[in-house]
Amino acid sequence: MAYKNRKGIGTKLFGRFSLKTKVIIFCILCIFAVVLVMKTSYWNNKNKAALENTRKDVTQDTVIKDSNNNTGAAENKENEHNKLEEECKTAEEFFRNKEYSKAIGKANEIISQNNEFYKAYNIKGIALCYSGNYEEGMKNIDKALELNPDFGYARFNKALAYELYGKYDDALNWYDKDLEIEKYIWSYYGKASIYGRRGDVQNTVKFLKIAIDMSSDVKDIAKDEKDFEPVKNSKEFQDLLK
């Protein structure tokens, strides 16, 4: 009953206003409602823009950080690779100077840092073969070829190891395998040396000529090569070395 009385009193009071006053009140209420709606819309848009900017900043920051991390990791990997390459050159230099134990030791250091660095296995393998350890030497050369089947230097060294231990047919086969992927002067020279030992003048001259055409310095080396003793008196061989 009290609620109905209050409602009735409010209705009676509003009914006492003139039409003009009612219109003015209505307009004021409409303006107030429009302002309220506009203000609410303004703050909603502002908050939405702020949220989108925050998300954009977070996304950009994440992308930049990820990019920097990837770049740093790539640089570290490249630096590590370059370092191992330099160490491998040192091992190769030891081998060329016939310091086989040093070459093996340096190769082992490289492998301890990266057990997939195939070039180190290659140098270790041929150094072992020249040190008299044929079996272990071949295992290491084969490991290099397992990691990189198209590594020409390992193919050449496998042929060289076979030749060193008198396995000439296998050596010729692997010199050919090397020549399948690179025209390496010493693979031609290696084939000429084997044919020279066998007294095969035609093939000796054939492959030695290719090597000489690639580098005239080979001619002077061939003059003192003991492998060519069986063919050195042949006219074809002597004409080649003139």
UniProtKB/TrEMBL annotation:
It comes from the Bacteria. PROSITE patterns: TPR (PS50005). The keyword Cell membrane does not apply. The chain crosses the membrane at residues 21-38. This is Tetratricopeptide repeat protein. Keywords: Coiled coil, Membrane, Repeat, TPR repeat, Transmembrane, Transmembrane helix. TPR repeats lie at residues 118-151. NCBIfam families: TPR_END_plus (NF047558). Gene3D superfamilies: Tetratricopeptide repeat domain. Residues 67-94 form a coiled coil. SMART domains: TPR (SM00028). Pfam families: TPR_17.
